[in-house]
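Reopening closed ticket. The problem is back. First fold of the pair:
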Amino acid sequence: QYLVEDMMNNSKIERLKVIQEIWVRVCNEHMEEYTKAFAVSRRDFTKYISLFVELLAKELKLQVIGEYYSLDFVLYKEEDLVPYEGKTWNQRLGNWLRHIRVVLEHENSLDSSSGGYQEFSHLMLTTADAKVLVGYGEKYDSYDLYAYDYQSLMKNLDYSPDPILFIGEYFPTISQHGLIFESYIIAANKILKYIDIDDNWVEMKEVV
């Protein structure tokens, strides 16, 4: 298991690599649940994905809140909670956070009119130690184009946005020995793609 203190001491990109490794592994370890969830309907898949978010949080020794201020999932430590009592308030309904360790958005349809763009831009504006977008697209044979497209949102800004982990899902089949994902770490100045056969991250060529 990974200790959150160890992960958070890493660079932003190294944190995302750790999260990617855990995500792919726990999904493969629970392939039957993953396949069943995918088969129900794309619209309902987000509520099933919570199982894998819980498993990710358990590995990182973090807790989870779903649907937190329009974010699908946020992972946090107990110490990140706003105290229930202060001099000017006494709030005991729900949880408020003052620090987000990991924020994860899941998009069932990256190809919809706003889908992937909406979620990616939302992550760019969110303050968190690590940011993740997991989604499913149907238009193209690879998620490379999505990665380049999302990176374009980081260009020509007056600030340097945090890198974001993007994991593209493929519909699972019974014959598979392992689930297929394409994973990218997207930053304004580069995109890293995980090459499964080499167990390595490589920098993608810049598109002119």
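Second fold of the pair, where the issue appears:
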Amino acid sequence: ADAAQREPPALRAVRSDRMADEFSAPVSAAFAAFVASMVAGYVWTNLSTGTYTRLLVYLGDARDLIVDQVIFTFTSFGSVHLFWQSDARATAILTGVCGGAMPYAFTLAFLGVWFARQCPLRRGFVIAFLMQTTKWTRMLTFAAVLLCLGLKTDARLSDLNAKVELRTVLSYGNFSFEATCVGAFLVTAFLSFCHHLMHPAPTALDL
């Protein structure tokens, strides 16, 4: 270990190592458990309702609520199918990538950065890439919020003295997706911190 510390920084930057070897076994176990919990969160998100649309009908001058029914639910897998069937192919692909493929690819990348042997230069590049791309998956959250703000329709039926409303509401699937996105960003920040501990930036004196 002392000999490795005395190596020139340029040599340490290209020598392959494992982050798991530099930290204790409990730290590695806790890291793996947290990543596994993220996988569970992504699965829960994909199978849960992200948003839903309610139909409300009010009748009379007192606006008595006579209909309150959910007429549409928005899920990750179901929305991809609906977008594709309605010829919104680009939206379907973007939803499938951001909500389906990328989150699970992130978890594999996290485990690879921590446990796989690789040179620090490559590891630093992968961590920097993950820091940026983990933000992109949150586009689905922003899209859901915009949907809730934009899809609210009122219709007044003067002949029946009735009012019809459509409201789109955020559900627990969207909140769990946001939580796992924040967790992914925290993991990349932790990996970046550990990487800099192992390989601090060289100074002029080191060179």
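Update: turned out to be a display glitch only; the data is intact. The two ends are 20 Å apart (CA to CA). Residues 1-5, 203-207 have pLDDT under 50 and may be disordered. Please close again.
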